[in-house]
Amino acid sequence: MNSLIGLLRGARGLLLPALLIGAWEIASRQGAAQAYALVPLATIGHGLVDLIDSGALLISTLASLQRTCIGLLIGVTLGTVVGASMALSRVIERVLGPLYHILRQVPILGLIPLIALWFGSGEGAKILIVSLAAFYPMTLNTYEGFSHIERRYREVGQLFGFGPLQQLTQVLLPSALPAIANGVLHALAFAWVSSVGAELFLSTGAGLGNLMMNAQAGSRMEVVVIGVLCIGLLGYAMNQLFSRLSRYLLRWRDLH
After folding, report:
1. Which domains occur in the chain, in start order?
2. How many helices (H) and strands (E) does the chain have?
């Protein structure tokens, strides 16, 4: 009985998607114009089979994921270093802080025309866009994490006679880890969105964004829908995976 109740509770989250899918299918049968804008499910299914058989979906997905991972790694690394440096040094904060806060107000996609002009439309420009998208939230969260460490933790480190390096690795960094993990989660979301956005604007090379652009040009709206679904599902999966990983790695904070 308990297992049945648990199954029903878990199925509640599928109710709204099922209703939307049903409404989509009904709307797609109301005429040629609706069938073009709201592609029938059977057409989407056939398009998915074609993309899988040709390998186009796999190649595009792997290209977008690779671009996201590389940019995320660069952005998270630089963001952690810059955020911690600004939090721990007033001189660095005064030098870098104003420039950082000015630049982060500019939407990352608004920088694409300049980046394309300066660096072209190749892979390097796309990775730069993803890196910047990950850098801004990572820097901010790291800065907040190191800035709001309770004084008593610092006093404990001083009581044990920790040097600057020990204070950083054994007191400051563990205290800031939850904020850093939150920064990685935000950076991941921005990196994934900006990766697809860069592919849409800089339509060279493989990627889900480029796949969708080519499909739109060829009036293959089922491929566009498949691309949108893949982007959403992969983004959700990555978010859930990292959330669970961070909770597991930081489980020691719940121990008393």
Report:
1. 1-38 (no CATH), 39-251 (1.10.3720.10)
2. 12, 0
